Amino acid sequence: MTESFVLQMNRELQSLGIALTDQQMDQFFQYYEFLVEKNKVMNLTAITEEHEVVTKHFVDSLSPVLLFPEWKEKKEKKISIIDVGTGAGFPGIPLKIAFPGHEITLLDSLNKRVRFLEDVCKALGLKGIKAVHGRAEDFGRDAAYREKFDFCVSRAVAHLAVLSEYCMPFVKVGGILVSYKSGDVENEAAEAENAVRLLGGRVEQIYSFVLPETEMKRSFVVIRKEKATAKRFPRKAGLPSKEPLLKAVN
Q1: pTM
Q2: Residue 49, Cβ neighbours under 10 Å: how many?
Q3: Is the dihedral of CA 44, 50, 54, 56 positive or negative?
Q4: How far is CA 242 from CA 107, 158, 183, 210, in A?
Q5: 3-state DSSP assignment of residue 242
Q6: What value, to the nearest 5°, has the Cα angle with vertex 163 and ends 160 and 166?
Q7: How far apart are CA 133 and CA 131, in angstroms?
Q8: β-bridge mates for residue 222, sequence order
Q9: How far is it, in rounded angstroms, from Cα 210 to Cα 87?
Q10: Is the terminal CB of the chain with fewer CB neighbours within 10 Å at N or C?
């Protein structure tokens, strides 16, 4: 583990009020090494420089604690979180390393990425986390996953209307969807208002900030689920992205 890695992690996570143990720091560095090595043979991320991975993947993934400080608290009742379209494991694996008491589910549609995630979790000794292979449209209809999670998080690149249809079926009534977005998202959130409402939610907050030591503007769209999602959602695979819920669906 490099000194530069440790110093940067400590410095940037301090702004989030997160202090890592030596074991957690080691897990993050192992994760970084796994990511860079596997990225040589499969497309996981365009970001591989150590200092960029720290800021743009690890710190970015953990930044919702600015809005949900309860994630840092040890609770008798575990918080359940599903990461939809997790890709290389962001934000789900950093959340699990930093807050090991929570139950994390990683969902991705590409089987070789899921195998990578399983290898990472095993190597890091992470418990209470599982990676599942499949499409959100299918798992969102599965009784074992539908409306079972306190939080859904996603860094997936999709319009908020599309992402909401992928994610909202997983969230319990009273739970929250956190969509990680780049830059200004007010117009996109306004366009997605109909979709969010149809799916049982309400945009509760848009929180914008700049990643530490960069000029990168990030935003979180926080959607509170106020009522159960209608059984017709999510629609069959492919439809949410092909025909977003930008207009009322009869």
Answers
A1: 0.96
A2: 10
A3: negative
A4: 21, 11, 24, 32
A5: helix
A6: 155
A7: 7
A8: 178, 205
A9: 23
A10: C
